[in-house]
Design brief:
The complex is a heterodimer of chains A (546) and B (498). Chain A is mainly alpha-helical and 546 residues long. Chain A contains 22 helices and two strands. Chain B is globular and about 70 Å long. The two termini of chain B are 31 Å apart. The chains are: A mainly alpha (546), B mainly alpha (498).
Chain lengths: 546, 498
């Protein structure tokens, strides 16, 4: 029953928002609080199987998803409250996108079977587009287009992967990995590889990150908060649920994932330091942090037996990053540099991301370090991890400078921001306490967390002293190159596929003209018959020889 | 219900629209109200009759009407489970299309001729659905060819007449080959009824070359209507027909009759095992895959909405052939259920294209800009159907695609995934930009044209589109419900592959 409510509620709100009028206003008013309904199945822990719907829906909350559900409840509802107060234009489309994204997120959070997860993932990916293009200007439409192209590329990999999983099992639907059972069905290695790559797009793992620094910042502030705080975690959940270590050589793949994770962590920071917009810097910080999440995920491959102990740690890291990043994005909409108290609210989650002692980031980093060091896959991993903290600290310094340097028209700060910041600082600790993941701070660990910050401080002082000028890169970095290249290859008059132009001009480039003339010829009956005979004959011959 | 009545049910369901068609011809052009009543009464009556037969079939009976044409040559109308799948699709969508067509052609000339042939067309489709052997199938298949020509050429413009001529050349050419194949086959085995698993198995080895040639001849006959590349040329041209005709052509009647024929040919004439042994399953699978990708690529290049939809049909209908060609329970079910799913989604798209053209004069994709705010219900219906065509859950198209993909991997043919993924991406590439135009881009101040329509006419146009859009959603969301097309098809396939 609770599951039915949770699934139906966002869909009803989306329908209300779509219909508009009085129903629309009522739906907008209620939408911010819809995520709270997720507390019901989180507490009840019941599961349902609806065989009548689609290919059979299986829904429920288990120990693997619980931290993700908690993150969604807190971040999505508080961001929704902020959105309710700030979204003034094109409300209908925005709230339809918001509610449908929540519906998708709910489905994939609660999914216990493959098709249910896939359903939620697809709904989420497509609906997020409506929030990304909210501004409707050229930049937003470009970000939306690049987002969709990348999302569909990921979708292609994921679809191939899930079809291979279900088909390999000769059954329409299969169960997903849980905390107790990481490998409920045998999965071919190709499928695992495809799923790893497909979900990496959502997480913004370098070099699949190009859409993220464009799309996350261009959305309205509350949408950025859930995109960067919550929705990226859908990719992580996809990895945990669908791509557990299986079918591939685990240690080799684990090593690759670990290296890719560290590479993403550092690349995200380096690219982020070249940015001039506050929200873009935060988006690159998400890329960097997801690199750390990948590093954490790689330990599952490096030590598959540790699954039941590592998965809750990954959940904790996701909860920590999601809340803090959402709080930082909400800060962007509240003139964070305007008063001393606001600067404090900005600084605390920023320090937390940099893993300063006693913050939730310290808790997450400590577990991450223990996990990676225990696998002994990479010498000096603890130093590398400390350096990622230093790098993040530098990036947060950039955030601080941009936030305090802005000229603000000071308006009242929204309570949702303060609440979310408080939640970000406390909830991960409480969650750790309730799941037995508490770390008792000691002077050694505190020093290990503190020296990277001091290092970052030193670097900052040095650059200020030497008055070094930073490099400035376009948002989305290499995507700009790709766009240029594609533009050059296609020549004049060509844009992304499916972008329509009048017929006469479309026929310019050669391949298109060739296909068009082939089509014209085929339209002549005699040639069609001849081709049929030739094609059929060739196939026949091929079969004969074979 | 007595046995005699049950025997006559398949005949009645075919004849009801023939009678209505004759009545409409006799009534003439001017008696509009009577014609509308006859039209709707026949369409509703057909749905009721199909419902009655469905109850019989559910009860385990197979109503059959048999008429001896010549010694050894029977005209057989029989309602098995597969017939009912196609018949109920046709009956339901016909009712919806009739409402739409009445609203669409409200003030145009030659309505008596139009609705008369419209009814004969449904007679033929029902005959194709109910045909119990290849000869009966051929008779109604040809009736369908001829009854559709006046509908394609309805407007009488030079373009329409040219499209009509192309249509006839293709289909009659295909029919000639079909007939040769039919006679050849009857020479080999005599007149056999359609039977699950086919009737040619014992003939398999010694006559394999003849059987291969006959298969190809019959496949060309079916393939012309099913628009298998390279036999698809007529379909994009035929989109000059009025919107209700296009809707019907692509979703229920002509194209579907071809695809249904392919299913019958593989499942009930040759049988899956023999088709595979003769190497014909591979031939069909490759042709279907080629068609799926080629149709989508061509659709991407079209700027006319209806042409884009036409190429989309070329691509999507081949899912059906692909499913039966792959074989195995799940892939076959995926292909067969697409018979229904593609029909519901594509008819919605054509209804919407017709509404855009007739109310606002919008015919090209770039003119769709901002139409979501002007015609929200129609645009919503279009969006649901388009997302379904891409194969996204929870729409009906996803169910077909999932069964096809999983079934293909299950029988060891994972290459099919590449085709499905390519098709998904291409469909997204030619549908998603339309949705962005409709909903995200700003609304223009003037529309290209169109005429003012009364509220009743608008309701008669938009209502059917909304109903079929809802169906494409419901058939997906409730696919697991016991009476859904999916469950029905799974039961049929269990009959073929226990």
């Amino acid at each position: 029953m609770t599951v039915a409510i949770v699934v139906a509620l966002p869909l009803l709100l989306a329908a209300g928002a779509l219909i508009g009028g009085r129903a629309g206003v009522a739906a907008w008013g209620a939408t911010p609080w819809a995520p709270l309904a997720l507390l019901l199945p989180l507490a009840a822990r019941e599961s349902v199987a609806w065989s009548w719907s689609l290919l059979g829906l299986g829904l429920g909350v288990d120990d693997l998803t619980a931290p993700f559900v908690l993150l969604t409840v807190i971040a999505w509802s508080l961001a929704g409250w902020f959105a309710r107060s700030t979204i003034a234009a094109r409300e209908r489309t925005f709230w339809v996108g918001w509610s449908l994204s929540l519906a998708g997120m709910t489905l994939l959070l609660l999914a216990l079977t493959l098709t249910t997860f896939y359903l939620g993932y697809v709904v989420l990916s497509l609906s997020a587009y409506l929030m990304i293009v909210h501004a409707r200007d050229a930049a937003a439409l470009r970000a939306g287009r690049i987002y969709l192209i990348m999302a569909l590329a990921g979708e292609a990999a994921i679809l191939s992967g899930v079809l291979l999983v279900a088909g390999g099992h000769a059954s329409i639907d299969v169960a997903l990995a849980t905390l107790a059972q990481p490998n409920p069905v045998a999965v071919p290695g190709v499928a695992t590889a495809l799923l790893l790559v497909g979900f990496a797009v959502k997480l913004g793992i370098v070099p699949l990150h190009v859409w993220l620094p464009l799309a996350h910042p261009i959305a309205p502030v509350p949408a950025s908060a859930i995109l960067s705080g919550v929705i990226v975690k859908a990719g992580l959940l996809g990895w945990l649920r669908l791509a557990p270590p299986q079918g591939l050589e685990p240690s080799a793949v684990g090593a690759v994932l670990l290296v890719a994770g560290f590479a993403t962590a550092f690349a995200g920071v380096l690219l982020g330091l070249t940015q001039r917009k506050l929200k873009t810097v935060l988006a690159y910080s998400t890329v960097s942090q997801m690199g750390l999440v990948l590093a954490a995920f790689s330990t599952l491959y490096l030590a598959p037996a540790e699954w039941p102990r590592v998965v809750p740690v990954i959940g904790l890291i996701a909860l920590h990053h999601g809340l803090n990043k959402a709080a930082l994005f909400l800060a962007c909409g509240n003139a964070p540099g305007a008063t001393r108290r606001r600067r404090l609210l900005l600084a605390l989650p920023a320090l937390s991301l940099a893993a300063a002692p006693l913050t939730t980031g310290y808790l997450a980093k400590e577990w991450l370090k223990r996990g990676i060091v225990a696998t002994e896959a990479l010498a000096g991993a603890d130093v590398l991890l400390a350096l990622t903290s230093a790098a993040t600290a530098l990036l947060m310094w950039r955030v601080w400078r941009l936030a305090t340097g802005e000229r603000h028209t000071v308006t009242a700060a929204h309570p949702a921001w303060a609440l979310l910041t408080v939640a970000a600082l406390t909830v991960p600790w409480a969650w750790a306490a309730s799941t037995g993941l508490l770390v008792v701070p000691s002077t050694t660990t505190a020093w290990a967390a503190a020296w990277p910050l001091l290092l970052a401080g030193g670097i900052v002082l040095a650059t200020v002293r030497l008055q070094l000028r930073g490099l400035v890169l376009p948002e989305g970095d290499v995507v700009v190159l790709v766009e240029r290249l594609l533009g050059g290859v296609r020549g004049r008059g060509w844009r992304a596929p499916g972008v329509e132009r009048p017929r006469a001009r479309r026929l310019g480039p050669r391949p298109a003209a060739l296909v068009a003339s082939l089509e014209r010829r085929l339209a002549e009956v005699s040639i069609a018959g001849l081709t049929m005979l030739v094609v059929g004959g060739l196939l026949w011959l091929a079969l004969w020889l074979w | 219900v007595s046995d005699a009545v049950v025997t006559l049910l398949p005949l009645a369901v075919v004849l009801i629209s023939l009678v209505a068609g004759m009545a409409i011809f006799v009534l003439g052009e001017t008696r509009q109200l009577t014609r509308t009543i006859v039209n709707l009464a026949a369409a509703v009556g057909k749905v009721v009759l199909v419902g009655m037969i469905a109850l019989q079939v559910l009860g385990g009976r197979v109503p059959e009407f048999r008429l001896a044409l010549l010694p050894e040559l029977d005209l057989v109308l029989r309602a098995d489970a597969l017939s009912m799948l196609f018949a109920s699709l046709s009956a339901v969508l016909w009712l919806v299309t009739t409402v739409y067509a009445i609203a669409y052609l409200e003030r145009s000339p030659n309505r008596a001729r139009f609705f008369g042939f419209f009814s004969i067309c449904v007679t033929a489709t029902m005959g194709v659905a109910m045909a119990g052997n290849l000869l009966t199938f051929f008779v109604f298949y040809e009736l369908l060819t001829l009854a559709t020509w006046p509908l394609v050429a309805h407007s009488g413009t030079r373009e329409a007449m040219a499209a009509g001529r192309t249509y006839l050349r293709y289909t009659l050419g295909g029919s000639a080959l079909f007939l040769i194949g039919l006679i050849w086959l009857y020479g080999l085995v005599g007149a056999e009824d359609f039977i699950a698993g086919g009737s040619l198995a014992e003939l398999g080895v010694e006559q394999s070359v003849s059987l291969q040639i006959v298969f190809v001849l019959l496949l060309v006959g079916m393939g012309v209507k099913a628009a298998l590349v390279p036999l698809h040329g007529w379909l994009p041209q035929a989109m000059v027909a009025p919107a209700p005709v296009s809707a019907l052509l692509h979703a229920v009647a002509v194209v579907k009759a071809g695809a249904f024929g392919v299913v019958r040919l593989v499942e009930d004439v040759y049988g899956v095992a023999l088709t595979a042994d003769l190497g014909m399953a591979s031939l069909l699978a490759v042709l279907a895959s080629l068609t799926i990708v080629y149709g989508s690529v061509m659709a991407l290049m079209q700027t006319d909405i209806k042409r884009r939809l036409a190429y989309s049909t070329v691509s999507q209908v081949s899912y059906i052939a692909l499913g039966v060609a792959i074989g195995g329970a799940m892939a076959t079910a995926g292909g067969m259920v697409h018979l229904v799913h593609q029909g519901v989604m594509k008819i919605t798209l054509f209804f919407c294209a017709g509404i855009f053209a007739s109310l606002l004069g919008v015919k090209r994709v770039d003119e769709l800009t901002g139409i979501g705010r002007r015609l929200p219900w129609t645009a919503t219906a279009f969006s649901i159907a388009a997302l379904g065509m891409i194969g996204l859950p929870p729409m009906a198209g996803f169910i077909s695609k999932w069964y096809l993909g999983v079934g293909a991997v299950a029988v060891g043919q994972p290459w099919v995934i590449a085709v499905l993924v390519a098709s998904t991406l291409l469909n997204a590439a030619y549908f998603l930009p339309l949705l962005r135009r409709m909903w995200i881009d700003p609304t223009p101040t003037v529309w290209p044209g169109g005429e003012r329509a009364s509220r009743a006419v608008t309701a008669g146009l938009v209502g059917p589109a909304v109903v079929t859009a809802l169906l494409s959603l419901v058939l997906g969301v409730f696919a697991g419900y016991p009476l859904s097309p999916l469950r029905w098809v799974v039961a049929i396939v269990e009959g073929y592959m226990p």
